[in-house]
Amino acid sequence: MNDLAEIKAQARKAAFARRKAAHQAGLVGRAGLLSEVLAGYRGVPLAGYMPIRTEISPLPAMEEASAHGPVGVPVIQGEAQPLKFSRWSPDGPLREGPFGAQVPEKDDYFDPEILIVPLVAFDRAGNRLGYGGGFYDRTLEGLRQRGGCLAIGFAYGAQEAAELPLEPTDQPLDMIVTEAEILSF
């Protein structure tokens, strides 16, 4: 394993522990600030995610947004492939997708203009550390080349890191929303 991969693995391990502690502290489901941000973009196609393990849940904000325009969730297409986003509704039927995340039973793909991005860690410069598959980096790069996408990282404040190990392919976020603050870049 190269040095950067080892450094990223250690950073992920520490961030997972911080996220788990925040999740267990009852900060679950505090999507109020995310809802406030999205209220300024009513009707703009957006994609969130179905939370897994100890991820902070964007579902309340996604439910609110779905009353005004299309909302989707990511569907993994395969290793080293960008994500596609299938239309989601709060009461729509779901099936299990790769890595245990729920996806809509029927695929109805569209390109979001706003992307709510899960993450393991973030810094105050808008950088994120993901799970290591590069799915969101590839996806953001493609969406930005096709005309733009507002990338909003959603995380517990405890997931903040002083600095992150970065690679040239890592895509920065435009905004980070936690249970307590909104950071714009």
From TrEMBL:
Enzyme class: ligase
Entries under InterPro entries matching the protein: FTHF_cligase, FTHF_cligase-like_sf, NagB/RpiA_transferase-like
Keywords: ATP-binding, Ligase, Magnesium, Metal-binding, Nucleotide-binding
Pfam families to which the protein is assigned, alphabetical: 5-FTHF_cyc-lig
BP GO terms, sorted: folic acid-containing compound biosynthetic process; tetrahydrofolate interconversion
The protein's Enzyme Commission number: 6.3.3.2
Catalysed reactions, semicolon-separated: (6S)-5-formyl-5,6,7,8-tetrahydrofolate + ATP = (6R)-5,10-methenyltetrahydrofolate + ADP + phosphate
Cofactor(s) essential for the protein: Mg(2+)
GO molecular function (one): ATP binding
Domain of life, per lineage: Bacteria
PANTHER family registered for this protein in UniProt: 5-FORMYLTETRAHYDROFOLATE CYCLO-LIGASE, ATPASE INHIBITOR/5-FORMYLTETRAHYDROFOLATE CYCLO-LIGASE
Similarity field: Belongs to the 5-formyltetrahydrofolate cyclo-ligase family.
Name the record gives this protein: 5-formyltetrahydrofolate cyclo-ligase
Biological source species: Thalassovita autumnalis
Highest classification ranks of the organism: Bacteria, Pseudomonadati, Pseudomonadota, Alphaproteobacteria, Rhodobacterales
